[in-house]
Amino acid sequence: MLADLKVNRKDILVIGSSMGGFIASSILAKNPEIQGLVNVNGSGAFVVAEEFFRSADGRRRMTSIERSMLEAYDPINYTYSGKPVLLMHGDNDHIVDSSGQYAYYAHCSSPHITFDIYNEVNHQFTDDMVEGLKSWLSKQFGSSGE
What we know:
By secondary structure, this protein is an alpha/beta fold. The protein has 6 helices and 4 strands, in the order αβαβααβαβα. The protein has a 4-stranded parallel beta sheet, sandwiched between helices. Strand 3 (85-90), helix 5 (99-108) and strand 4 form a beta-alpha-beta unit. The termini are far apart. The mean pLDDT is 93.
């Protein structure tokens, strides 16, 4: 689709919230030429997140086949591109636990990653998060004054 639209991947920043954050993390993992990632209340560690979901729902653990299938798509099984990444998560998120964000942050282990935890925030995108996003975007991609 990008080729049809004549969009250069170097001009793309992927941003997603919740499931969109999962998807955005996967897009960056599979397309390292993309400019960067913002993941809000999502996860870049699919296996970690699935383990949380199953535990929270009282479901059985993944079988080795299920785990193997999910690992094939898991961003932490791809080499981190070194592009700027902003992870944002509420510390009181009961829908998507922040453990997946922590795992992704540890996987990338780079000064190009910013991980902001918002106190007393559940699974929502608050005004403070919007301001944090705007500030991060300005620092990462803002005009150099030229």
